[in-house]
Amino acid sequence: xxxxxxxxxxxxxxxxxxxxxxxISQLGQITVGLADSIMIGRLGATELATAAFANTLFSLPLxxxxxxxxxxxxxxxxxxARKDYASIQTLWKNGLLAxxxxxxxxxxxxxxLYLAMPLMQQPLHLVAPAQSYFLxxxxxxxxxxxxxxxxxxxxxxxxxxxxxxxxxxxxxLNILGNYLLIYGKAGxxxxxxxxxxxxxxxARLAMATVMLLLVVxxxxxxxxxxxxxxxxRKEVQRLYRLGLxxxxxxxxxxxxxxxxxxxxxxxxxxxxxxxxxxxxxxxxGFMLYQGIGVSSTIRISQxxxxxxxxxxxxxxxxxxxxxxxxxxxxxxxxxxxRVQLPFLFTPEAEVARLATDLILxxxxxxxxxxxxxxxxxxxxxxxxxxxxxxxxxxxxxxVAIPLSYLSAFHxxxxxxxxxxxxxxxxxxxALLFYFRIRKKLAGS
Length: 444
Description:
Blueprint: H1 2-41, H2 45-69, H3 72-81, H4 85-116, H5 124-138, H6 141-156, H7 161-183, H8 193-215, H9 222-227, H10 233-266, H11 269-304, H12 309-336, H13 349-381, H14 386-410, H15 414-442
């Protein structure tokens, strides 16, 4: 046991050093998501359901863009481990260009989703206000991709603190803006749901601006900035070859939850509002696990530059151990407070009762969600994205969504049936990723 501890303690320490700022940043994002839901929920179940519909659709281009931008991290991590500053400079410039081009593609996707919203069989009175709110959120895609460019580059440079600080400050700005613009405080107009959207847009513009100002001052980039901007088609293509399957990977998971949200809308406003509450709570676990997944990507990408398989395996095990402890603590929290938590979002007893039932299923899938997040972080660090992307599509659209539909509408399990598909889909995904990692590490 002592020998095992000596082998892994350095990996625990380094994983936590990189991961804790990301976790704090993710917690800040959760706080804003929870604050948005709580503040919007005080307007009524109709507004909460409207926000759920718009946010569910907006997460599709948002998550794809986030996944696409992650291609910068493994390439930057390897260059940083080799002290190859010229490659880092090239990655920054071409990564920013690649992400800006992707932002315009995502805006076109958002336009298509906007036009399709009336065709998604949602309650008619929700569609028009959801479209208005969705348009405001879609406007934030461009500054978000700029922010992600800097965030992913800095993470490859083993700096996760800057993104943490910017995110926390942006979140505070967003919460303040919500208070002023949703309810019309301090002389500002009372804009309701649209006020929440405008607040989010302004916060993301501020985050992108500050990120750009700080990234260009990093010592690894100063020489490149002085030398002038130049772009390489080959480098952009390399980022797209890795970024597209990474975006597809996260998109598959996100779109599966989007489909579940649409199916919830078929069951009525109460089901959709309860679904939004539990989705907001599920983000707590997801974001925490994602923080450790990010640190796993950084560690694995840097260690892979030195071709030391034993170190890679020890780093991977350390990440898994940390996230399993998180699963235990988070699951206990949800179990103990499952009845009280929904009332933070709504005063309506029927919505809260249904949300309480769904939280029990949320507890079940925590383990599988955490494992697939960590395994995907390890695979990203190995710059392996194409096969994991295909495995994700199969797990969600070949397993989770069909099972959710059958359970809800053929076995008459209702909202709980929709949620039952996710533990199974996540479990299949985690198992397939595990075998993929074993194959990659055996060949390293």
